[in-house]
Amino acid sequence: MSTPNKDIDKVEVRVKWDPSPHGEAPNDLDIIAATYPADDPYGAPAYLVHFDSRSPDGTITLNRDSRTGQGFGFDEVMTIELDRLAERYGRVVVGVAIQQREGHKTFGAIENTAMEIAEGYTKLAENDFSDVAWATAAVIGEFTRDSAGLWGFRSAVRGYDGEPDTFAAAMGSWAAEG
To answer: Regarding beta strands 60-64 and 114-119, do their DSSP bridges make them parallel or antiparallel, or are they unpaired?
Structure first.
């Protein structure tokens, strides 16, 4: 799905998955948001928000963090307040990475994965990662600010095979398709 939505103020990114089978290493998926300067939207991120962190100005917050996928509903939830983000930032890329502490694990090896990006009750994107079953991480969406200051969204699930740290550094180096 690729939806060029415009004038987005505040979104919630949600990810869920099933716990690993008994006796296996926990499934730990993490939402990562990378914020880029308006004058260098494909360079290095100004900052990253992921587990145990939030943006310096409080506009991007990880509200719920799971290391196992146990519980009801969505296991990880991040709020991004685009309407409060300083004008010096022009792009926010959101991804999901699987922790690789206990060996190589892909989306295809984790049962019942799902993600949603929503503004209020409006779903901007939803996916189950089946198209990137081979991947250890994936970009799931991109927000960009236009010359009028309005934020737009493009859904783009693009897989990546590597460690979460290298994914976080590379996830914003290309533009969303569509």
So the answer is: unpaired
Please state the pTM of the whole predicted model. Answer: 0.91
Strand 5-6 versus strand 89-98 pairing type: unpaired
Measure the CA–CA gap between 172 and 178, rounded to whole angstroms: 16
How many CA atoms are closer than 13 Å to the CA of 157, on its beta-carbon side?
21
36 membership: H or E segment, kind and range: strand 29-37
Give the three-state DSSP class for 54.
strand
Nearest by Cα to 117 from 70, 144, 82, 78:
78
CB 11 within 8 Å of CB 119: yes
Cα dihedral: 6, 156, 109, 52 (round 10): -50
Q: pLDDT per residue over 101-156, tens digit each?
A: 888 999 999 999 999 999 999 999 999 999 999 999 999 999 999 999 999 999 98
